[in-house]
Q: What sequence folds into this?
């Protein structure tokens, strides 16, 4: 029997924000850095795309839920705030606007108000998202699992990928290896960058890390219809889900297509090409949506890192769990 109450929120930071500062911003630096408003100006808002958020629930006046389901043994209300923030970063459409304000949010509460939950709750949430036909599924949570649960989860994650659904997962915030399900072959693992565009110190690494996104001190929706700045790969994950949602309005991508779109359009962090601690670099939203041409030079070194990534991605992280990347 697999262990219960082992799925959890990665450790993250919360900074409450006075309401007057929210009036000044109305978004966050990540949304501005990715020039999301320029994408909205082209009429791309994620209109009608179904997005599932598997988290602590959601309740905020800026966020409209298309559907809600509770798989936990806590009440429906989100008293943690994490799920509300994540959902708002993707699809808030009020005073604060998320990256894809036109999308339809399907909220599954799979974590209790203390930020932890049973693996079976997450499993039910994934099956529900598949049943509802959600194109993008955001999981800003995870943990360590035994082989029994990994095997149990393989069929649903594989089925989602086979049916063209993209499961986006937070890498984790422990300066260690990717947590599950971010380390699974059929998910897309996301790490975090700071405002300088550098890898956040807490962001996890691994052979299946694909892309980095803004994840430090980002403004978003919070408890009691308020707003707060949060830091963590939990924040980078919905930033990526939001960009994918914008693309889904234009053209439905498979997981493999999405990964290789990131391979070709992300901005390098430090060295050229893929690195196990920063993936293919920072997400470049307009280039990912093919609204701008990529300036990436496909050199011999770049192709060497591509080959390394493909081998590492499909072989997995067994070797990485036996050593530390510094």
A:
């Amino acid at each position: 029997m697999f262990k219960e109450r082992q799925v959890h929120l990665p450790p993250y930071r919360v900074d409450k924000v006075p309401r007057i500062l929210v009036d000044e911003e109305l978004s966050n630096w990540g949304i501005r850095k990715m020039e999301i408003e320029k994408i909205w100006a082209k009429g791309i808002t994620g209109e009608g795309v179904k997005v599932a958020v598997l988290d602590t629930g959601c309740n905020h006046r800026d966020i409209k839920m298309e559907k809600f389901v509770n798989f936990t043994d806590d009440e429906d209300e989100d008293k943690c705030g994490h799920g509300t923030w994540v959902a708002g970063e993707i699809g808030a459409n009020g005073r604060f606007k998320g990256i894809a304000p036109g999308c339809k949010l399907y909220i599954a509460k799979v974590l209790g108000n203390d930020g932890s939950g049973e693996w079976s709750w997450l499993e039910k949430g994934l099956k529900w998202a598949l049943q509802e036909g959600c194109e993008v599924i955001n999981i800003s949570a995870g943990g360590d699992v035994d082989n029994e649960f990994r095997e149990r989860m393989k069929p649903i994650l594989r089925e989602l990928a086979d049916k063209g659904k993209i499961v986006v997962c937070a890498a984790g915030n422990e300066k260690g290896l990717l947590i599950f399900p971010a380390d699974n072959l059929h998910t897309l693992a996301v790490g975090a960058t700071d405002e300088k565009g550098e890898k956040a110190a807490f962001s996890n690494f691994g052979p299946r890390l694909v892309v980095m996104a803004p994840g430090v001190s980002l403004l978003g929706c919070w408890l009691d219809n308020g707003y707060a700045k949060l830091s963590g790969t939990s924040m980078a994950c919905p930033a990526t889900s939001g960009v994918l949602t914008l693309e889904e309005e234009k053209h439905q991508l498979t997981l493999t297509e999405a990964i290789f779109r990131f391979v070709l359009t992300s901005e390098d962090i430090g060295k050229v090409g893929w690195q196990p601690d920063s993936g293919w670099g920072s997400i470049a939203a307009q280039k990912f949506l093919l609204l701008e041409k990529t300036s990436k030079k496909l050199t011999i070194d770049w192709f060497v890192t591509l080959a390394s990534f493909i081998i590492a991605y499909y072989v997995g992280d067994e070797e990485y769990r036996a050593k530390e990347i510094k």
